C-alpha cells in the first residue's frame, strides 16, 4: 500500500498552491485538494483551480469531484 501524505498549502498564494498541486501530479501522484465552496453553485473556486491547473499542466485530469468532507467545501481529486 502506498503511503499517503498531507501538505497544508493554506499559507501560500493561490497560484503557488496550484503549482504545488500540479508539480505533485506530474510526478505520478494522485492528488486531492479541498477548497471552500464559492459561487452560486458552490463550485466557483474549484472551477478556478482546475482552469489554472489545466493551463499550467494540460495533461492533468479530474478523477473525482464531490462536496465535502465538511460543509461548504469541495474536494477535487486529480492525476495524469
List keywords for this structure.
25% strand; alpha+beta; globular; 3-stranded antiparallel beta sheet; 80 residues
Q: How confident overall, as mean pLDDT?
A: 94
Could you give the order of the helices and strands? HEHEE
Oligomer: single chain
Rg from C-alpha positions? 12 Å
Query: Strand content of the residues, in percent?
Result: 25-35%
- Uncertain segments are none
Count of extended strands: 3
Helix and strand composition category: alpha+beta
Enumerate how many helices there are, as a single number. Answer: 2
General shape:
globular
Largest pleated sheet: 3 strands, antiparallel
Helical content class: 25-40%
What topology, given as strand order, has the largest sheet? 1-3-2
For the termini, the CA-CA separation is 20 Å
Describe this structure in words.
The protein is an alpha+beta fold and 80 residues long. It has a domain at 30-79. It has two helices and three strands. The chain has a three-stranded antiparallel β-sheet with strand order 1-3-2, with helices on one face.
What secondary-structure arrangement, pairings included, does this model have?
Elements: H1 14-26, E1 31-36, H2 44-56, E2 61-67, E3 73-79
Antiparallel strand pairs: 1-3, 2-3
Offer a concise description of the structure:
With 80 residues, this protein is of the alpha+beta class. It is 32% helix and 25% strand.
Amino acid at each position: 500500500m502506498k503511503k499517503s501524505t498531507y501538505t497544508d498549502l493554506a499559507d501560500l498564494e493561490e497560484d503557488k498552491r496550484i503549482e504545488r498541486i500540479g508539480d505533485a501530479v506530474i510526478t505520478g501522484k494522485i492528488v486531492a485538494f479541498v477548497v471552500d465552496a464559492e459561487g452560486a453553485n458552490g463550485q466557483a473556486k474549484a472551477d478556478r483551480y482546475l482552469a489554472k491547473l489545466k493551463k499550467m499542466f494540460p495533461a492533468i485530469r479530474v478523477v473525482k469531484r464531490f462536496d465535502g468532507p465538511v460543509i461548504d467545501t469541495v474536494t477535487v481529486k486529480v492525476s495524469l
